[in-house]
Amino acid sequence: MTTKSDASPKSAPRAKGRNVLAVASGKGGVGKTWFSITLTHAMVLEGHKTLLFDGDLGLANIDIQLGLMPKYDLGGVIAGRISLKDAVTHFPDGDFDIIAGRSGSGSLANLPATRLQALSDDLLQTGKEYDKVLIDLGAGVDQGVRQMTGLANTVIVITNGDPTSLTDAYAFIKITHMARPKTDIRVVVNMAKDKKEGQAIYNKLLKACEGFLKISPPLLGVIRADSKVSECIRNQTPLLTRHPNCDAAQDIEAIAQTLLEE
Predict the structure, then answer these.
(1) Residues 6+ apart with CB under 8 A from 239
(2) CATH code at position 144
(3) SS in 3 state form for 123-174?
């Protein structure tokens, strides 16, 4: 059932950034933040100046995965102490910029609508200085997540073979499609045993989307399960720096090339 909050964006469309991609999962624990970091790095390696925005304010962890201690973060922006541009931190090992969140500081959903809109406008303005902007969305489908989703020209939904992951990915796709039917939604299957298993997982999600929503979000790519990923996360080192030739790295680079060729 469509609620008023789900339907309201139809009557009040927001401006989009043509260079903005949003990464969503519907739930935590599927590798969304790791994927966002690695995809950002892959785009830089292809010669594109890229900004990574941590939109998961309450559980922000991009800086933690990268081993960074930013002087400024999104908490200072929301408090009005600094501008969004001042919150940009360069990550030299990957040669890309990030805007870090502040873990435990609450959700974007708690922001007043006017402040949330101002933050969105600032992000689009700051993003004009980059070839690509990636938004690592928070889990769920609250107001803040929907607002940030609406800024993106393409939305990438990450899932894996876990039934709850598929259910939550479908729920996110449903709400996003209901709010903005023309949204370009792509699917990435993470942590698959092999490409065949990844395709089978995607087919389950596709069947639900076609059966109930009458849409067919395409498969952007399958990322194979790779022990090198957890090793890099433990060592707070980007995968494409530490293990650039492993299976997962190759899969991410293929996804980046697909997006950039378009």
Answers:
(1) 34, 38, 41, 228, 229, 232, 246, 248, 249, 252
(2) 3.40.50.300
(3) HHHHHCCCCEEEEEECCCCCHHHHHHHCCEEEEEEEECCCHHHHHHHHHHHH
Pair 69, 113: CB distance under 8 Å: no
- Write out pLDDT tens, residues 183-226: 999 999 999 999 999 999 999 999 999 999 999 999 999 999 99
Q: At what angle do helices 195-208 and 163-179 cross, to 10 degrees?
A: 50
pLDDT recorded at residue 141: 83
- Give the distance from CA 39 to its chain's centroid: 10
Integer Cα distance of 150 and 148 in angstroms: 5
The answer to whether the beta carbons of residues 56 and 30 sit under 8 Å apart is: no
**Domains in the chain: how many in total?**
1
Give residue 203's domain range.
14-261
Q: Which whole number is the average pLDDT over 74-79?
A: 86
* Cα–Cα distance list, 63 to 37, 75, 157, 205, 222 (Å): 10, 13, 22, 31, 25
Tokens linked to 17: 């950034």
